[in-house]
Amino acid sequence: MISVIIPVYNLEKYIKSCVNMFLNQTYQDFELIFTDDASNDGSLEILKSFNDPRIKIFTVKKMYAGGARNFGLSRAKGDWIVFFDGDDICENTFFEKMAKKAQDTNSDIVICASNEFIEKKQKFSNHRTAHLLKNIDENVTGDLHDIKDNSLLELVEPWNKIYKKDFLILNDIKFQEIKNSNDIVFTYKALLCAKKISIIKEILVSRRIRKFSISCFADKNWEDYFKAYKTADETVFNYKYFDEIKEAYINRKINTFAYFYKKVGILNKIPYLLKFNSEIKNSNKILNQNKYSILNYLF
Fold it and tell me: How much is the pTM?
């Protein structure tokens, strides 16, 4: 059985479609765990309108998405865990294909290809090439070292994966309880601890890109990105094959900081820049080369 954990905060525009999307899956042995984090719109009422024993609704307070996911995991009864965002989209064969791959390979994690749905343009986009898993052999199952493709380090989102619950519990893999980037530590620890990772190259999930998602509020919560990677470093730098992945990991980290630097408001530009420059200096030292320069990101 699959436990699907969905944090909810003011998703009344999407939550009904989300529930129906899961109820229409070709694989029906699942439970839906909705953790409502003090929504002040009609999200909770919409969820309660469904009469299905597989739907479990919990109300939490100020736990943010990371804490809500951890809470949902503590209540999950399934052998396999899916973390999903209530505004994202999946194919109706998502559960069936992911569960079959997980069971056939006895993997700790199964990752599927994904793309983006641009809400404003009402169209799908494949521009995030790493998420298409093009260069990975889906017949290879093993740990990150066996797969030998560091593009997996680009996939820090949890929603294009299914996890063995026992694996998560055994390794104490949890989300950070911060407003932004709560999934970075979780995903890197999962990828590095997993003894078996399997791949499905079919696009089964689409991330919705919309105007008022949490990631749009970088100016208010910009320090969270640095907190997340500081904690992730503790896991990644101790990985026994760190030399194999360090360049890919650091490149992902620097690109993340550069992306959100552009979104930070004028009042926070200087403190952000100081932290960013410190990360660049440390990264160059680890790589033993002057690969990055703050000047490349100023304009």
Answer: 0.92
Whether residue 150 contacts residue 122, with contact meaning beta carbons closer than 8 Å, is answered with: no
CB 65 within 8 A of CB 184: no
Partnered with residue 231 across adjacent β-strands are none
Q: Bridge partners of 7? A: 35
CB 75 within 8 A of CB 33: yes
> Which stretches does DSSP call E strand in the chain?
2-8, 30-37, 55-60, 80-83, 89-90, 109-118, 123-125, 161-164, 197-209
Coil vs helix vs strand at 287: helix
Per run of 10 residues, the mean pLDDT along the chain (length 299 residues) is 94 94 96 93 94 95 89 96 94 96 96 91 86 89 92 91 97 93 95 96 92 60 92 96 96 94 89 95 95 88
Joined together, the tokens standing for residue 197 give: 């990772």
Length of the chain measured in residues? 299
